[in-house]
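Go through this chain for my students:
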Amino acid sequence: MILIDTQKEEFSKLRDIRVFGRISHDDRFNGNLLVIGLGGVGSRTVCNLKGMMVDDIIPEDNIHFLMIDSDIPEMEQTIEDSKEHVGFNALEVLSIYRPNIENILADGIKKNPVHPNLANWMDADFPDVTVTKDGAHGNRQIGRLMFSNAYEDIRMLLFDRLEEIHDKANGNWMDVIIVSSLSGGTGSGILSDLTYNIRAYGKAKKWANLRIGGCLLMPDVIFGNKSVTEDPELMFRMMANGCAALKEVDYYMKLSEKDDAYIFESTTHKLVIRENLFDACMLVSGKKDSQGYLPEGTVLMDTASFLYKLACNKYIGNNDVNDDSKLLRDVFFDNEKYSVTNWKMEHSDSEIATANCYYKVVSEADYKIPIREIENICESDLFNKAYKRLFVSPFDNPQIEADIKGALKELDDFLHAEPGDEINLSVNGLIQFGQFTKPTYKMIKKHTDGLREHMGEKLDNMDKELPVMIKSIKNKLWNSLDAVIAKYIKVCGPYAAIDIIGAPTAGVADSTRGMMAEVKKLQELHSKYTPSGEYSRIIESICEIVAKRFFTFPSAKRETENGYYDACIKETLASERNRIMDEIDAQDLFGDTLRWLQQRAERLDEIYSQFGEDLKNSIEDLANEGKVTTKNILKNAARHEFLPTDYVNDSRINEVKDGLIRLMLDNEANIDNGRVVPVKDAMEKIYRRLFSGIGAYGPEKMLSVAFSDKKLAENDINVMFGSPTNDRRDEVMQKVAAAFVNDIQEEKQLCVLKDGYKELLLNKKYISVPNVMPYFSRAVKGILMDKPYNEKEDSITLNPGEIEISISDMYVGVPASMMACTAEMQKAYNAVDSSYKGLHIDEVNRDMRDFPNLCTL
């Protein structure tokens, strides 16, 4: 059997099983959220975010995703990918491409055949262009033109989605986060139009609690792509685009302070609004090290990881200290203005400038405690031990051979009996000898008894019933054998049942044992059977003696009568046996039984072998990944063993084995018919029962086993964690905490600032430690509050739903001039030839070239 695609998906869910590090999904997410990916890079980022959340969120969380793009092949591919839970489904994709756009600019903007409002913001000298369905090709005005052209459809679909989310929102509030690259044509081209349309719709609906955030990715985010860096012209155009887009965003982030308004027009709609573009905006740039720029995928995944935090109920601040705990998303959307000390090299220390913008830059370092990986290692170890027991020879249990012989006993007794012996077969149609009357001596002498003739008639009648009799014997035999198979398949599993059947074609280890071997023995006995005429000769001899002599003594007559009667019965029994033997041969009872057993074994092998092998491989793959991770992360551990030395015992291994057997047998029809088997749910139940003996503080106990100087038994860890205070536990937890905190890697900056500029910004630092690991978290907190970290107690909070240490900084009120990448972007922008059209989305009503350079503080 070949594993079907849907089952591959189910096996992939094994990585989501949580026992020790289980995260409760109750109130885990801060819902009422729509995350929109614009263009290719923005959509890939949001796709990563969706992948992190899709298996955990529930409808009540009211968290939704949307992709808006102009690249039809890309959108078709993501819809196809969604079948594997790695893309956007058809309801989450919104295309701004319409076929009628292709010829709109065929004769230039002056001869545009459609309503002039569609593109009255484009330069009259915009060149002839054929728009295609594979994107805006880096031209921001083409991106905006496609959006304006499709606006009538888009506004309906977009506003319906907003209405749906807002209607479900608890507390009548909702947040929208728009993720877009600034370097292309679609995302940066429609960013402002889309955002202002959402804001205007919320205003029209009187949604007082609608917040819109931005996540803007600079051009250098994708400079890790070789295809980009090998094309200097492409890099130049992307940086120029990025600078133009950022200048516009910067302008509209402060629009409420200007005597100006944002204007958007389509064929039939006009939007005029005077509000800031975003309530909060996060900047993301690429990061360059000695190896060059980080790969795009790494940056996008890091960005998605931070967005994931915004979607969670993640808190900043410590309720235990100043009762100042606050949701991270609320901190992100906080748009108050902050004072910033100017760059000391250029200005005096007393000069203060107001960071009159809402840009935020995030640096974060997450140290994931590899509980999931540790679980996978322990699960695989126990699974493999249990799985091997499914293949242990079942004949170690002598009762199995006794049960097989018991199922064959009736036929075995019949075949071992001699001609003339009584036939003890539980089948209708056999001759009932109690109906015959013993003849008298006189009747025997005169040949008037008629006993043999009467018995012959019974034999002839039995002949008519023989086919049904043998079929009944066969059915009973098969039912008896099947009952043994069913009994032991529940006890030993399907693979042991194959051994019990003993079919060589199903790959049994020893084909000399089992049902088929025993049936072959019976078949051989049957083939050696020889009919006997002994009792006919005895009858003839008695008749001859009686005919020649006359017995006068009553005892002699009785002896003759009895001998004659017994010989007739035995003659009939021998004849009856002969006929049964012949019919067994005619119907090939033993051959059919052997073929049936072989098919039964091959069927079991076909149904279960591939499934079991795939399950085993999936669990081993997770364990191997876990071993690589723990080897790197837990290099300071005394050992890479995570369960007490006496935890893995026969009882627990057999418990897993029994669970695997139940999983297989309960899903025989699903496996056989190619339907999905709920492997994840079944294995999670097995693992839960298995590890229930660990008890509370599971993650900390597992790490204690790994980091303790001496190997620990179950009783040791129970003593260590059985009371609020325990010196041995505290000592081990100190080692564990130090292994993580003192091995801090380089921070992940989602925007790189110029050297020294961090000192000028308000830094909101937050540290969270897992509340499901209280003793470990207490040790982490102590290390961070001590030298050389010297963190304040009120910056550290216990966060639910996490198995990680998060140490993050949010720099607030960052001017664009502080970004390390702005100089190159500005340089490319300044070098663009004035004849190039499409740098700015509105080159008629507003010339952004007059807006100050990004590098100006």
